[in-house]
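Quick one - first record:
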Amino acid sequence: MTKPTPLAILLLSLGLILPASAGAKPYSLDEILDLARKGNPGLAAGAQATASIEAQLLEARRSYLPTGELNSMVSQAPEVHCYQTDGVTRGDALNCQNTGEGAIGTGPSGFLKAITPAGVFTRTELKLVQPVYTFGKLSAGVAAAESGVKASQERQIGLMADLELNVRKAFWAAKLAREISATLDEGSGFLDQAQKKIEEELADGSGDASVTDRLRLRTMRAEIDARILEAKRGADLAHSGLRALIGTDAPADLDVDEDALGALAIPDRSIDQYEEAALRSRPEVKALQHMVAAKRALAQLETRKQYPDFVLVGSAAYAYASSIDTPKNAFYNDPYHALGAVISAGFHMPLDLFVKNARASKLHAEAEEAEQRKREALNGISFEVEKAHTELKEAEERMKVVQKGEKAGRQWIAAVAQNLAVGLAEAKDFSDALMAFFQARVRYAQSIYDYNVAAAALTRATGINVSRAE
């Protein structure tokens, strides 16, 4: 009997060996896909990566807003007075100087007086810079961030498509394991009848049954029991795989629905239609297009960094010291007393032009490299579509061929079982028919599984659900 090795290869390649639950609740494919989309941690991680890039876009858009800083401080202040030449203290003196014993800056006593707290000093400064014209730097930065967000979103869709492909494989693998188990159970029923007939003939000495016939059927029994255990292991692995793909919140009693394994209905489309759909709908194609656009925008940004920025600058300041006089003189720069605001226009021009020019050339080359990588990937995608389409057609033709053998095998074992019951067939004839029945049924179930998996692969390759009519 042919062993369905693709099932084992699929489940082992996923690395999903988890304990299966005793109870089971049936879920349809759409329900399991919905659970996986909501609970898969890989998709959640991809969503956070997209959120991070969206934050970068928000930062780029806010570059149009004014930037600046606000500084404020409070400290101790010394006692400072202004004196007229006649020695009279006057805080509003127009021409003043520090005089008298212990004046600021005169000898040790003056130093001590300067550092001795006599009052409170506070100063607050606000500075704002508003971009006016940047030769397209801000718009280039926004364009690069927007393309980066779109590329990340398409990558997220691609991750979801990969997840859905694996879910479909595990789902159909569980159906295949169930179908094989049903086949073995049906064959076991035929074998029970044959063994009973042989034992009765050997017990009463009637018929042509021999000990060799008994041993032949016992060998068949051992083979069937071993295959039943293998089918159970395949089903357990498929269910464990589905739970792992869904995530930690997967139902412990998860199982596939009770519908029999059947081939999907795929509308007839040409290979050209599938390739056009891939170029139009596949997320990797869109992600590559947005990635190239982001690279080109970054190259433009680096080129425009060689040009100046025209800005408006606004500043305001307030300062006050309670123990320091305020001289009234237009030419005095008094850091302890200030109140004013100013708006000015200016520009900033970088002088490392040769360095920025080299960086711009580097980014332009990277943009062209991304364009060529996109073309290379498109060729690979066309190959994937052609490969998946070829596998689908081959599985479809094979399914039609082996279906005829499955019907013939069923009729054969039924006829031989009846003949054996009335003594018109030998145990060897029965074992040959039973083996042919197993092989035909398993091959047919395997061809249906391969066809559905090929349809899932074609769905992934094209970016459209091929089982739905457009």
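second record:
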Amino acid sequence: MEVLRVSSKSSPNAVAGALAGVVREKGEVEVQVIGAGALNQAIKAIAIARGYVAPSGYDLVCVPAFKDIEVNGERRTAIRLIVGPR
């Protein structure tokens, strides 16, 4: 599954376009975030992407989960959002 990493500085419109493209091509995508600001941008992007893919008959949903990852040698807990059609 393709992973899109979103930061607090990510543009929701750009992420939404990437999200919609991956969902159309592969069926689902994992969005990975660390921190409240990044989660905020990711949720906005998912809401925007729902509008992008709705005319094609997709109703996007997301399933949240935690994931332990390593960033610069440090263990962190990320939130992963699995996004795909209902």
